[in-house]
Specification:
Length: 225
Amino acid sequence: MTTTMDREQETLWDTVKFLNKLHDKEKAEILLKTTIEKSLRLMNVYTPVVLQLHFSIPGENDLEDLKQLDAAIRGKMETYQSEQTFEEVLDYIDMISKMTQKPQETNKKMLASILEKKTKETARVSKRAYAPLDKSAAVETNKERNQQFYTTSEAARKLGLSDQTIRRMCENGKFEGAYRSGGGHWRIPEDNFITSKQQDKIVDELFEQIDRKNKEAGDVDKFDL
C-alpha cells in the first residue's frame, strides 16, 4: 500500500474524530461508513452485510483505537499470511460490530458472510477455468433494479485504489452484479458500497471545504473549519 493511501486513511479517521467533537453526527456517521468500507476493502474482507448496518459514533478513545488497529493491519498487508494479522482483522471486525445495536449478532453475520463470499469466489474462479462467465443475466438483473452504477475510476477514487486494481477486482468477481457495458467498460452496482453517490458528494464537499480553508489560512490546522 502506498504512503499516499496511508495518509488518506489517517485523514479520514482524524476527520471523523473532528466531526464527532463538533457534534456533527450526520457527517461523522457518513464519513465513518466510508472509512470502514475502505478499510475492509483494503483488508480484502469486505462483506455486503455492512450495507445493512447503522454505525453509532463511539467515544474518542475507541475511535483512536480503531484508527491505530486499522493502521497496524495495513502496515502488515505485504505479510498478510501471518496468524497475528488475521487475529487483528478479527479484532477490527469485533470493534466495528460493537458500534451497532446488536454487536454479537452483527459479528456472527459478518464472519459468516465473509466465509460464504470467499467460498463462492473460490468456486467461481475454478468454474471460470472450464466455462466462460455469462454476464448477460447480471446485466438484465441490474437493469431491472434501475439502480446507480459506479465506473471503475469512480470506485477507485471512492476506495483509494488504482483503476487497474478495481478492474482486476471486477474480473475476479469481487463486486456482485458488476458487468461490462457495450463499450467494454465495467459498471459496478451502487449497492456494493456502504455509502451512496449522494453521501459521497457530501464527503467530497467536506474535504473541499477543508482544502479551501487550508489555502485561505496558510499553515493552520487542516481541521480548523
